[in-house]
């Protein structure tokens, strides 16, 4: 099954990292897990790391803020949503924070899509877009595929518990 063209960005192999997986959970549940703080904190970072704070306002210009604890260090991520199509697509970035304040060192823009496969299954695609090939490589070397893949596995398990 091809991705819906409105959900599929033009990909640049030097700048974009892509993870696609078919998940055994309905897309409305996955979308809820992505857009509701009380759900997101349960699966959003690879365990044993954890989300210690989360503020989400899923609308263009709404905040997308999370704080992670990784090995005792707090990592604050402030951003905004750029595009929101309920149950289909979320685009958010750390290039801006609330009030369209530019970030001094933006890292990426993420595009997450949820395509209904029928039977309660969803094709989940996450794209991490970067400004430079060096930033994309750094993200890949930091473990993008393992980390985001672990998060998808955690998301699927958590979402299945909500059915």
UniProtKB/TrEMBL annotation:
It holds the Pfam family AHSA1. Residues 24-159 form the Activator of Hsp90 ATPase homologue 1/2-like C-terminal domain. InterPro entries: ASHA1/2-like_C, START-like_dom_sf. It comes from the Bacteria. Belongs to the AHA1 family. This is Polyketide cyclase. It comes from Tabrizicola piscis.
């Amino acid at each position: 099954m091809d991705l819906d063209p409105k959900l599929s960005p033009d990909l640049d192999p030097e700048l974009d990292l892509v993870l696609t997986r078919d998940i055994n959970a309905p897309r409305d549940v996955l979308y809820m897990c992505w857009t509701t703080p009380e759900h997101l904190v349960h699966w959003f970072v690879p365990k044993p790391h954890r989300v210690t704070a989360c503020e989400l306002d899923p609308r263009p210009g709404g905040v997308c803020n999370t704080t992670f604890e990784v090995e005792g260090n707090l990592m604050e991520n402030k951003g905004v949503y750029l595009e929101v199509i309920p149950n289909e697509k979320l685009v958010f970035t750390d290039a801006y924070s609330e009030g369209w304040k530019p970030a001094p060192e933006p890292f990426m823009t993420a595009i997450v899509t949820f395509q209904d496969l029928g039977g309660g299954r969803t094709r989940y695609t996450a794209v991490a877009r970067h400004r430079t090939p060096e930033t994309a490589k750094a993200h890949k070397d930091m473990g993008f595929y393992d980390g985001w893949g672990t998060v998808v596995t955690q998301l699927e398990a958590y979402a299945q518990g909500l059915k």
